[in-house]
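[job 0412] stage=complex_fold ligand=2'-O-acetyl adenosine-5-diphosphoribose status=START
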Amino acid sequence: MVSHRLKHILRQASSMCVLTGAGISAESGVPTFRGKDGLWKKFKPEELANFDAFIRNPELVWEWYSYRKRLIDNVRPGAGHTALAELERFVPRFTLVTQNVDNLHQRAGSKRVLELHGNIERSYCIACGSDANEEHLNRTEGVPRCERCGGLVRPAVVWFGELLPHDVFNEAEEAARWCDVFLCVGTSAVVYPAAALPATAKHAGAYVVEVNMERTDISHYVDESLIGLAGTILPELVGILREEKEKIA
Ligand code: OAD
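[job 0412] stage=complex_fold status=DONE, emitting structure tokens
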């Protein structure tokens, strides 16, 4: 149930920043990381999402990423992704920031997405830095090698212990600083620096709303926690703005 206060704030908002996490893709069938059936319950991040692990055992790491790529190829964006793509058209200054690497926001039609943790559909050579040709990659069995220099190719995702792309994070931080409303959707908000963005927004005076199936580490300081499915709540929020737009038109 969306409060009257939030409805009013949403209608007035001229700038909005949204941070998404694995929960928004869960309804599409992409597993989350933590929680009961989370990936990190079954797999060890230190063996799969870490540069040293990749150098030690690139076969294993590529097996894991190929499995996830196949999984993502076979799912569709959900109602939450679609709602955010629509929201981008309604709010004058809108920034979508995601921790997800699954490309589902783009597939749902979002035009501008700040990818904090990279994108599983891209890869690059660790020796010469050139982007890998994804078609070549998809035809390759086992560990892909750079077509230019023969170096090891890795997925273009951020692993534990690695820095986030500097420009992308700066832009996300800027958006968190100037937004009127900050939505934090489907993330456990425990992985930094992404998890610091809602606090940045709060300190700068934004109205911070969390959308999650359960309370999280940030629930104690947000202005509202909307507990439920992203795929149900986000279309409701967008509906409020659509109604407003239709009234004006
Ligand atoms: P988590 O798996 O930590 O958290 C997912 C959150 O989504 C939990 O808080 C769930 O309660 C919530 N959730 C699940 N289904 C939902 C639904 N249908 N609607 C709303 N909420 C739902 O995933 P992240 O917070 O995204 O990093 O994880 C952050 C980072 O940790 C990931 O980007 C990844 C991982 O290690 C890297 O790979 C660098």
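The pocket of 2'-O-acetyl adenosine-5-diphosphoribose is lined by residues 21-23, 26-27, 32-35, 38, 49, 99, 117, 158, 186-188, 191, 211-214, 216, 229-230 (CB under 6 Å).
[job 0412] exit 0
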